[in-house]
Design brief:
homodimer, alpha+beta, Glutathione S-transferase (chains A, B), Glutathione_S-Trfase (chains A, B), 9 helices
Chain lengths: ~220, ~220
């Protein structure tokens, strides 16, 4: 039996790989683990059957026998702990990689989520332009610090890890706003992530869902 | 040798236990692990010596021999993995507890951080009242879902875990805004966390730093 994940039946990003199932698909591909996908409509995500799997009514979830997980960060960590290739075996290096997983989700992603709030919910507000500029500057502060850490290294801390997987995934969400390209080493870092065969397989799989659902 | 953590020399919350070193102190107290504290001024946090420990120039960090970690979530997870009492031994229950750690930091905390942005950076803006109401409603949506999951249970998923430790810590940040009390079972849940002897020792330790530094 393969594990089963959930994903959007019709992703709001039109298959650009920004929905959070992409992080789990990518981790599963890096780990060489086949998986099944159950697609959910927006209304099905809020129904009790899915709430029992995900208390906040979101995707992705992960089910494998008795195990039922939610939160993409936790699922990626679980996959990384139970397969080779996403966390280094050395305990110190492993703990460092996990620091980067949390940094991606709790330090770098929050202002990026805030920019999405501005773009999707505040576009018609009088304050739209000023708030967007403020949030972009908050993102720039984080990216400048990240860029200063990365310098000319390929990955954040030694070899590619689940920390890089989550950081690249988070940074991809800000590329369309044009901010990523202000930091050439970060843009190259994200491109290195996207060039990985596992990323490409995951991206193709989630895009195929959108293409099929939209009849495109 | 005890591990060493870093904390604010003069906490912006005036010792109310909302700074992120509190999460690590609480975890160390639950684990029965003694620790040393190195206090940092705001300017020292941004200097190269601290940046080498924390790429984003924040607190807390955690040093134990060869190991140097940052991000409170990662530090709490490391403590939980290397001591008894914060993660259940059963693998399925352990992975569930870790899901709740990520839910606290990546699903519940982002809108709460956004409210802090409104309160600290947008109070003089024309949009302050309207934005504050919008962000409070975004927090309420998360808290309603969390309240619906918790019902009348003591903790989120079986016994107290690192997931509860982080969730209680995140919820404490919104209590002053009056939103927590709209969900009586969540208010009682937070109070159960605060009543734990380990929480109280950690709270007293971080308050003592502020009291000493402010001459109070």
């Amino acid at each position: 039996m393969n594990p089963t994940i959930t994903a959007f039946e019709l992703s709001p990003d039109r298959g650009r790989g920004l929905a959070r199932d992409m992080r789990v698909r990518w981790a599963l591909e890096e780990a060489g683990q086949r998986y099944d996908v159950r697609l959910l409509s927006f209304s099905a995500m809020k129904e009790p059957a899915h709430r029992a799997r995900h208390p906040f009514g979101q995707i992705p979830t992960y089910e494998d026998g008795d195990l039922a997980l939610f939160e993409s960060g936790a699922i990626v960590l679980h996959i990384a702990e139970s397969h080779a290739g996403l966390l280094p075996p050395d305990p110190v290096a492993r703990a460092r990689a996990i620091s980067w997983m949390f940094a991606a989700l709790n330090t770098v992603e929050p202002p990026i989520l805030d920019l999405q709030t501005v773009l999707f919910l505040e576009r018609d507000k009088s304050w739209f332009e000023e708030r967007r500029a403020m949030v972009k500057d908050a993102i720039r502060r984080r990216l400048a610090e990240l860029s200063g850490h990365l310098r000319d290294a390929d990955w954040l801390d030694g070899g590619f890890s689940a920390g890089d997987l989550l950081m690249v995934s988070v940074l991809l969400r800000v590329r369309a706003a044009g901010i990523l390209d202000e930091y050439p080493n970060l843009a190259a870092y994200v491109a290195r992530g996207e060039a990985r065969p596992a990323y490409q397989r995951a991206f193709a799989a989630q895009l195929a869902v959108f293409t099929a659902a939209s009849g495109g």
